[in-house]
Prior knowledge:
Blueprint: H1 9-33, H2 37-63
Helix pairs in contact: 1-2
Amino acid sequence: MRKMITMKSSTRDKLEGNLHKAKGKIKEVAGKIVADPELEADGKSESISGKIQEKIGDIKKVVGK
Length: 65
């Protein structure tokens, strides 16, 4: 039987935010390498979204959720 691991909403937001930041940075660099401005812009956008989600996690942690 597999044990389900649960985590607080704030921790999940911070983790997902970090993952989006990493994916965004990879897309941004790939866009620069292959000279694809659309991919680069998509990467920047995803990275910013990750930063926002990470900050939401920080706020939730302070509030106690």
